[in-house]
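Lab notebook, design round three. We kept the backbone fixed and only want residue identities now. Task for the bench partner: fill in a sequence for the structure below.
Input structure tokens:
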């Protein structure tokens, strides 16, 4: 376990998540997700977490591993067409991870998801949290549109559009 990482997480105050993602920002993200899903029908979830707990840090849990856990906890995998995508942000590390369901993993390569993550992380380093989130939703939507998923008008919305703030 890296000492710097441990200190960064253990000293991360929950109010920093609320300051970076106030209600108005969460509403803007939900609106963007709703609009995006109308165009392609994929299911996008956005989750932000301030920091990891001591047991997770002690185990050496990476942001990617935590994103996969959250993907499962939020049932993003539980869509009829296996077309769920989780955009996960670990704020203490300003790390973004995207986890796509098996129906999309085969169609969209890892490099495309990584490009979206790096673009979001660049905005996060500038302190532009809302812009980072909206950029991520727009880019994920662009990737899903390019795969020809049926528009939402042809099916029901299976997952909530409202972003999830973990551990406040």
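Proposed sequence:
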């Amino acid at each position: 376990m890296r000492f710097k990482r441990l200190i960064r997480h253990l000293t991360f105050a929950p109010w920093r998540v609320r300051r970076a993602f106030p209600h108005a920002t969460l509403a803007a993200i939900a609106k963007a997700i709703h609009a995006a899903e109308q165009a392609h029908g994929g299911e996008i979830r956005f989750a932000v977490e301030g920091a990891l707990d001591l047991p997770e840090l002690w185990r050496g849990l990476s942001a990617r591993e935590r994103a996969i856990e959250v993907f499962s906890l939020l049932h993003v995998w539980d869509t009829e067409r296996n077309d769920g995508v989780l955009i996960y942000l670990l704020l203490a590390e300003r790390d973004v991870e995207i986890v796509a369901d098996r129906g999309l993993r085969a169609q969209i390569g890892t490099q495309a998801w990584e490009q979206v993550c790096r673009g979001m992380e660049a905005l996060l380093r500038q302190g532009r949290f809302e812009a980072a989130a909206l950029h991520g939703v727009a880019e994920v939507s662009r990737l899903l549109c390019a795969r020809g998923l049926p528009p939402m008008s042809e099916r029901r919305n299976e997952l909530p559009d409202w972003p999830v703030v973990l551990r406040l």
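Keep this in mind before ordering anything: The beta strands are 43-49, 84-90, 95-100, 164-166.
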